[in-house]
Amino acid sequence: MTRQPFVIQPSDYPRSLDVVGEHITVLASGAATGGYEIFLQEGPEGSGPPPHSHPWDESFYVTRGEIMFGMADEEKVAKAGTLVHLPGGTVHWFRFGKDGGQMISMTSREAASAMFEHIDREISAGAPDLPRLAAIAAEHETQLAG
Length: 146
What we know:
Elements: E1 17-19, E2 22-28, H1 30-33, E3 37-43, E4 52-53, E5 58-71, E6 74-79, E7 83-86, E8 92-107, H2 112-122, H3 130-139, E9 143-144
Antiparallel strand pairs: 1-2, 2-3, 3-8, 4-9, 5-6, 5-7, 5-8
Helix pairs in contact: 2-3
């Protein structure tokens, strides 16, 4: 199958995925692009993933609010207009700040969209089963730290 150009307008966005309280909209899957993936990520104050790593690069561009990023032993507050790039293998996490926030993220290859869809299907945002979350992450080449 030959990849085709596409345009995604807000009225065309797919349903956002609930990934342990964070809302992730897949704007461009690796299946559609032939490689990289693009997401719109929004979350309430305090939401975000635990420390983890995966083999793909990931970049985040903050569009609203403040988001605290942890990378190895370093923490940075990213305000709207900030780009954060994380090479594959980097242990990282983030937390949406006061009043929540929004960012666009991009991965270097197809993988994250399948993991987010899997988590959305099986993990409750209100009372997440952490051992099952870790197992799902591992199935998608993501290791939770600690």
